[in-house]
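Example with several molecule types.
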Amino acid sequence: MITAAARLAGILGWPVAHSRSPLLHGHWIARHGLDAAYLPLPVRAHAFPAAVRALASLGFRGANVTLPHKEAAFALCDARTPRAERAGAVNTLVFGEGGRVTGDCTDGWGFLRSLGGVPVARGPAVVLGAGGAARAVAAALLDEGCPRVTLVNRSVPRAEALARALGGPVEVAVMGAGPLEGCALLVNATSLGMRGQPPLEFDLAPLPPDAVVADIVYVPLETPLLAAARARGLRAVDGLGMLLHQARPGFEAWFGILPEADEALRRVVAADIPLR
Ligand SMILES: NC(=O)c1ccc[n+]([C@@H]2O[C@H](COP(=O)([O-])OP(=O)(O)OC[C@H]3O[C@@H](n4cnc5c(N)ncnc54)[C@H](OP(=O)(O)O)[C@@H]3O)[C@@H](O)[C@H]2O)c1
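Resulting structure tokens for the full complex:
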């Protein structure tokens, strides 16, 4: 139940019907008994800038942004947080006085939190992918003290461009060239392994026994990569934690409470996602 004073936010995307964000924000709103609502906001690419201005005029506190709008959102903001600048993308909009739009990117922060206390400074990381998610993850790892990040991507020029954009201890390796020796953390930030996509075929044998394997793909929850990691006795981190944690800063900015990505939330959202 909401009143006329309800705080409003939502998720802008096209399509948006598959998004779990209304489910998880709705869970937090109910859990904290807030006079608030979080809505699915399906908007096509051409209508995105007008839709953002309209939401700000309507008194929305802000919105999440998903495909295909993450780059358009970056361009449209009046101000951006340092981590959004670093990620080159925006997934969270906060509307301020006079409709001023501030853009944040919480994906990297969410990814780090999803590791459950694994210290990223303990050794080098290998990030598979060079798209928007790979950039956010690699930037967060570097900014958190990871001593070296190796990018491995199908398109090598794209990985090289990302390495240049990130700066610092970043190198590029090609698939199958064995960058895994001494690797403390392997992250799949490609879309491989996602439902409807080809599987990710990657030999985990060279990984040290204490390496952590993370997959940011969360549909299915248990990707073939994570299953292979567990079969080797490696610690495996699924992509659902990143999804839950990345939502927290936006909720705090709009509704005034930093919510927990706890087991209860995980159960609610996991029930909506196939395990395999
Ligand atoms: N858990 C979360 O909260 C969260 C958040 C954001 C994203 N994600 C997931 O992360 C994944 C990547 O998202 P994104 O936004 O970074 O996408 P993107 O910008 O489109 O990048 C896709 C990446 O996957 C690679 N790729 C795609 N198809 C491939 C294939 N057949 N063979 C080899 N490589 C392939 C691409 O390589 P090329 O550069 O060579 O094309 C690129 O590195 C998606 O599955 C998304 O659902 C999860």
